[in-house]
Each structure stands twice: as C-alpha cells, then as structure tokens.
UniProtKB/TrEMBL annotation:
GO molecular function, one term: lyase activity
InterPro entries on file: Galactose-bd-like_sf, Ig-like_fold, RG-lyase_III
Positions of the Rhamnogalacturonan lyase domain: 111-274
Origin superkingdom: Bacteria
Keywords noted in UniProt: Lyase
Lineage of the organism: Bacteria, Bacillati, Actinomycetota, Actinomycetes, Streptosporangiales
Protein name per Swiss-Prot or TrEMBL: Polysaccharide lyase family protein
Entry-linked Pfam families: CBM-like
Length: 280
C-alpha cells in the first residue's frame, strides 16, 4: 500500500493591502499529489474542516484576498491530498497580518466608487466595457469629484495599448479635485482593482497636474473582470489587487488638481474604486 502523503514544509505568509500571500515547499511527488487544501482561522487553532477551507491549489502558493481595508490577522495550515483522496496530517501553523489601507488610515480627499471589491457602481459595469468603451469614452475619462457621476462618467474597464477593442492605444483616466491649500506632506493615490488581465496586466503612468508622478505595475489577475463585477462572490475567479503609492507634496497645489492614470503597457485592468487620500 502506498504511504499517505506527507505534510508540506516551509510554510510562510506575508501580508499586503487587502490580502495575505501563503507559500510552502511542495510535498514529495510519491504518492502522486492531487492538490493542496488551505485552511484559515482568526486564531492559531486552525481546524482543517470544510468551514475553514479557503481554497485548493496544485501550486505551492495561494493568496487569501478580499480581506478588506483594515489590517486582518489570519493563521493557516495546509493539507496535502493525493490522487486517491488520502489526506496528510496538517502542516505547521503560520500567521500573518494584512496591511492597513489608506482607505482606513487616511482622510479621503476625492474618491470614485466604493472600496468594496465590486465594480458594479461604475459606468458600463459589469460586462459592457469591451463593446461600448470607444463609443462612450472616445477621449478617455475626465471625471470631476463632486459633480461627475461614477455610474456614467468613470468606466470600470481601462483598456491598454494591446486591446483591439480600445483602439490599440493609450487611454488616460483623469480625476479632477480641489484642495483648499497646498499639502504639507505627500498624498496617497489609492487604486483598487477587482481584476486584471492574466498574462498582460501591464503598467500605468501617473501624473499630477501634468507632471510625471511615477509608474505602477499591476499584478496578474484572472481575465474575468471585463465580464464580472463582484469579487466578494464565494468561489469567484476574480483576483483583486491594490496599489497605494504616496506622491510628493510638491506635485499638488491649492485649487483644482488633476490626477491622470494612463495605461501605458499591456492589456486592461478593471476598477473597484480610485481615490486621493491624506495619510494620517
């Protein structure tokens, strides 16, 4: 009789905004491993039961996402399952804490949409971006905080220069907002995505008041966010990600300001929400 599969080793976890990444070393391939079952709990006493299962994978990694903007601590164990359905004993326990978002830690100055892992309140969501973008937004997005409507004026889907449906060119999404006075310290740009393209997530240039403010690279997603708009649905294939750079105070001024997001490389990304925040 073949031995039971061995538990994984080298379990590690690290937090980021809205998510915790868990990794481990692959179990030996004898007996043949079918998948790894990952369990999570809010205490170190992680039961390996169906109600604690957060996912299965054939890889030595998994991301526990949609944890929200607050810092969240979770503990994990992994069970190896072989091709016959036999389960190993649970791995050791590892814990990590996600990073608190500026959505919680900062003061909002201007926002578009709700930071809720959904795109449903944005224009053309959840599935008309590819078919309607060029008609609805031929010159990109130009959104004024306080007067524009997210449901009509900010498209959930931002095409990249590799997208034929977007004309295979760069598109800029502009957010206009007012400041009563020039800031004394940097301001945070919060970009929450419900999904990105799986193989070509690409990059975007940021500019404030037409001055370059850096470039951001997006994580790979699941290529489902162009058609689905709710990453909180159990079992969803969507892969949310979060970018929150703090930009130099010198870029901003009293009065009206502009923040430009220009997709400079790759394919589309799908927004959850965007905002400018003052870090606490």
């Amino acid at each position: 009789m073949s031995p039971h599969p061995r538990p994984v080793t080298g379990l590690a976890a690290g937090g980021r905004i809205g998510a915790i990444d868990v990794t481990w070393e692959h179990a030996p391939w004898e007996p043949l491993v079918d998948h790894y079952a990952v369990h999570a709990a809010t205490t170190r006493d992680v039961a390996t039961t169906p109600d604690t299962l957060i996912g299965t994978t054939v890889y030595g990694r998994i991301t526990h996402d949609t944890l929200g903007p607050e810092a969240q601590t979770r503990y994990y164990r992994v069970v190896t399952v072989d091709a016959s359905g036999r389960r190993s004993s649970p791995s050791a326990v590892v814990g990590a804490t996600s990073t608190e978002s500026l959505v919680v830690a900062g003061e909002p100055i201007a926002t578009v949409g709700e930071f809720d892992s959904k795109s449903l309140e944005l224009a053309l969501a959840p599935s008309r971006g590819q078919s309607r973008f060029r008609d609805a937004f031929p010159d990109g997005v130009d959104f004024t905080y306080g007067s524009s409507d997210p449901a009509a004026d900010w498209c959930y889907l931002h095409p990249g220069p590799e997208d034929g449906w977007g004309g295979e060119r760069e598109h800029t999404f502009r957010l206009r907002f007012d400041l009563e006075e020039a800031p004394g310290s940097g301001l945070g740009v919060v970009i929450w995505l419900i999904d990105t393209h799986a193989s070509r997530p690409g990059t975007a240039r940021l500019a404030v008041n037409d001055a370059p403010a850096g470039e951001i690279a997006f994580r790979r997603g699941a290529t489902r966010g162009s058609l689905e708009g709710d990453a909180t649905v159990p079992g969803t294939a969507l892969v949310p990600s979060f970018v929150e750079p703090v930009l130099d105070a010198a870029l901003f001024r009293a009065g009206q300001n502009t923040l430009d997001i220009t997709k400079s490389d790759g394919s589309w990304h799908a927004y959850d929400a965007v905002g400018v925040f003052r870090p606490s």
